[in-house]
Design brief:
49 residues; alpha+beta; two-stranded antiparallel ribbon; 24% helix
C-alpha cells in the first residue's frame, strides 16, 4: 500500500531479487618481476616480448 496525500493506493507487482558479485584486481606489491610482466601482459592484451 502507498499513501499519496490523502489517497491510499494498493500497487500490484512482482519483486525479483538477484545476486550481485563484484570483482577487483589489485596489484600485489610483493609480486616477482616475472609475475608483474605476466599480469601487465594480461591486462594490456599483449603476449611475448
Amino acid at each position: 500500500m502507498v499513501r499519496r496525500g490523502v489517497e491510499t493506493l494498493t500497487l500490484k507487482g512482482e519483486l525479483r531479487f538477484t545476486e550481485r558479485t563484484s570483482y577487483a584486481i589489485r596489484e600485489d606489491p610483493s609480486a616477482s618481476p616475472k609475475a608483474s610482466r605476466i599480469r601487465d601482459g594480461i591486462l594490456q592484451g599483449k603476449v611475448g616480448n
